[in-house]
Amino acid sequence: MEITLTHYLVLSAVLFAIGLIGVMRRKNLLMLFFATEILLNATNIGFAAISHYLGDLTGQMFAFFIISIAASEVAVGLGLLIVWYKRTGKIDLDIMTSMRG
Amino acid sequence: MFEAIAFYLFAALTITMFTITVMTSQALYALTAMAAGMIFISAFFFILGADFLGAIQIIVYTGAVMALYAFGMMFFDTTRNVVEKRTNPQIVFVLGTLAALMVVAIFVAPIISNNIHAVYPIEAHVGNAQAVGIVLFTKYLVPFEVAAVMLLVAMISGIILAGKKMDKSLTLMAEEEIVMMNADTVGHTEKGEH
Amino acid sequence: MELYLYIALFAPLVGSLFAGLFGATPKTYLTGLVTSGLLFASFVSSAVLLNYVMGGHTVHVELMTWMATGDLYIPFGFVVDQVSVVMMMVVTVVSTVVHIYSIGYMDHDKGFNRFFSYLSAFVFSMMVLVMSDNFAGLFIGWEGVGLCSWLLIGFWYHKESATWAANEAFIMNRIADLGMLIGIFMIYWNIGSLQYDVVFAEIGNLPMAVVTWIGIFLFIGAMGKSAQFPLHTWLADAMEGPTPVSALIHAATMVTAGVYLVVRANPVYDLIPNVGMFIASLGAFVALFAASMALVNRDMKRIIAYSTLSQLGYMFVAAGLGAYWVALFHLMAHAFFKALLFLGAGNVMHAMHDELDPFKMGGLRKVMKGTFIMMTLASVALAGIYPFAGFFSKDLILEVGFVEHHYVIYTVLLLTAGLTAFYSFRLVALIFHGEERYKLFGIHPHEAYKYMLVAMSPLLVLAIIAGSFKMTYFQLVMNLLPATQYHVHDHVTFWIMTIGTQLFVISAILFAYKKYGNWNSVPDGSSKMENRFCYKLLWNQYYIPKIYDEVFSKPYKELSRFAWKQIDLKIVDATVDAIANTIYKTGENTRDIQNGNLSSMLRWMVIGLVVLLALAVAFTVGYNAVGA
Known about the structure:
A: 3 helices, elongated, B: mainly alpha, Four Helix Bundle (Hemerythrin (Met), subunit A), 3 domains, 7 helices
């Protein structure tokens, strides 16, 4: 059967939901970063699909920039994580509550 | 038809891989599943005719980002089981499902506007890499350069954040100083300091 | 002439405000002197106005507009006509005397300055009441005297009985004022104005039922102010206040305001003779009723208070039967000798160190000659012996009853006259004659200050000679009031009536002297007389205060308690507290959102995302549904 834009968008939505579940569920910071990557990839699929089905390169450009920004984000995020680990020795979310309001 | 088979196959695989990433308690499995998922997503890009994007996905995401995560895992010594305290797993699933349903509803419902005209239209006879290159280096030049600067900054910050003894410069010190520094380090660790 | 009106009206107010400045400072004679002086100025102005009005003119001023909204126009207007000038004279004479007397009476009281402020404020309110030219101003004065009487009765506010009596007086007045307000509303509703001249001109055009109701409601107001049955219990209890207060308020001015209202509204009552008959009957009943209660009482001021109540009944009989000028004349004469009686009683009280039981006094004529003479002469005037003032006014009322063929009322009033003479002289005999029983209690009485006696003397003079004013007075007021002359046509009947009444009264006086002139013991509640049913009935005021307490006060108190505990605390307060608690608890519970845990914050983020998505879906669907 014909794969339309809708299929890809539904797939993107499902992957996005999986990413959300991972963000909510994971208590280990590293695992949390994994889930964030899933979110970004889901949106990339959506952009690429729209670009293909509407015949516009803008979507691919957007996805391209998202990839690059995700990469830099990972670098900085892991760096911060390392600093935190060096100071407290743990990367469990439930222990980091110094921003309690 | 091939397209349909490919789509459903890769869709199932991707969803499975990412579900493993999110659900498993073993960090190594999560990492591996994540890398596999990235590969399958690039398969989607190839199906959609975005060759350049697919190649970039493999190189950058699967190659660089996942390697970075692997190093991170090695550093944090999380190859063992990750112990996490689960609080309210139901609400998590409920919220996720709700979000999925609603986004799907929004997408499945007829898209409102049908008269979008492409800003940078895809020409059929031009290869994808060529087209991307033309647009990227002409219309999107400034964002490209800015992204490059940003990557540079991220790299430097990663080095600074993660490096040890950054106040001393190994290239500017003499040979004896480096030896003395190593001896000090050994002596420190022998005393049991971290 | 307007200047005199303003002086007469506002001098007491100025005095009150001046004395009010010293309210919290220790006693200074200045307040007493200044207020008395200002009241004297008011008296002189009233006298000038009296002279002017007797020349046939009236003074009418409109000070300023009070309310002018839509169809309602009420000005601050004042009129000095024949009726109001008579009232003004009475009020200013008695007030001046009482003020000067109070300088001596309140000599050792800490609230000296406050007293004069209240007293002058009262006089001002009374002047507003009698000088106003519309029903609204009358009502303002009405309420003002009610308020000032509350302040004055409860002057010694740390005494619980005094505050209770003050509240009783005010609340009973308020209940009656509701009736009066309804009457005023009906007048405005039907006529459209509250000015006396407009109302009295138009009143004849209204349907008889409306006029009847107006008359009834206005009389209800008068009943409260003048303590007619059943709103009479406050007058006896009001004796808790200082004696000058009783002299001014409960003899001469406030309680006569009801009579003044009926006299002023005589065009209304002329149209409804049935209501007038009711008023007269009620007045006669009250006269007898009060006199009966005074027969056995052992509180000096209460006896005089019941006597006031009884004489008010006389006045209402006259007013009810249409003899308005007679009622006003008796009002004037009564003010003089009753105020004199009260002031004399004040002297006795001071001498006896605030002892009020006449059985514990006795033989005081040896020590207090001036007071003895004054009180005896005042009682003679009260009893109605020729040629004192009481004869001319009281016998005139008896004549009115006889001439108008209301023989029952005549008989009741005659009987009451006898009783009046009896109890008045019972009091005089017990206080001033007989053995000196006060020596048992170690009291050393002395006469009052000389200037107090001097101040009381004008009242004595007036009580003696006021009867001679009758013709002048009649010539004056017949310009305004219906000028019916009451003559018993048959000369023989007339002489039999007059002589008979005099003999009856004199025999009552002699009987009183015989019984009480040589009293030598203090009754302590064990004698046979005191345990008879009649005595007990009269002693407890026919148990009416007790009935009021049981039937009205106690259930109302329970209702109030219920309303407080169940409704106010449980419902109203609970609702307000619940609102506050809800807000507080909501805050406490939502504080947990910011617990610093990244995982929970991410969950909240997703919740927010879901909500926004839901809104987007809903709006899109709605938009499509409406658009399509």
